Amino acid sequence: MSRDASIELDFGDDTYTFRLAWGELVKVQEACNAGPYVVLQRLYSQTWEMNDIREVIRWGLIGGGLEPVKALKLVKDYVEARPPLESIIYAQAVLSAGLMGAPEESLGKTEAASPAERELTTSPTES
Fold it and tell me: Which of 3, 7, 25, 77 is a plausible cystine mate for 97, CB 3.0–4.6 Å?
């Protein structure tokens, strides 16, 4: 399975898929006047700006397949109409998944290790 950077979250009135692919990350960068990693640092270091939260969530919804008009309505109802600290965790999760992939995604092997791999307890280079 490839790491497509999508993440499902309970947000507002339902469970939604969020995804920040390259194009959406560029849109976040333009809207926030900072690179995606700078925005992520601001979100975690409590130096965020209002657009950091709003635009990450909005573009994440659009990248996840939601129509732009519906994404904007959700952001107005559940981000702009609420205290910012209620939405910060969503922005952190969406942008983290966009930059690093979702934590539950496989990094390569989809099957369990072979019995020989599970039994190996020493380094292959060890004597």
Answer: 7
Burial 26-52 (b: 16+ CB within 10 A, else e): ebbbebbebebeebbebbeeeebeeeb
Query: Which residues, at least 6 apart from 65, have a Cβ–Cβ distance to it below 8 Å?
Result: 17, 19
C-alpha angle with apex 21: 100 to 96, nearest 5 degrees?
A: 30
Q: Which tens digits make up the pLDDT trace of 8-30?
A: 999 999 999 999 999 999 999 99
pTM of the model: 0.79
Residue-wise pLDDT for 39-53, tens only, equals 999 999 999 999 999
How many CA atoms does the CB half-sphere of 76 hold within 13 Å? 6
Number of Cβ within a 10 Å radius of residue 13:
9
CA separation, residue 14 to residues 9, 10, 11, 59, 110 (Å):
8, 6, 6, 17, 29
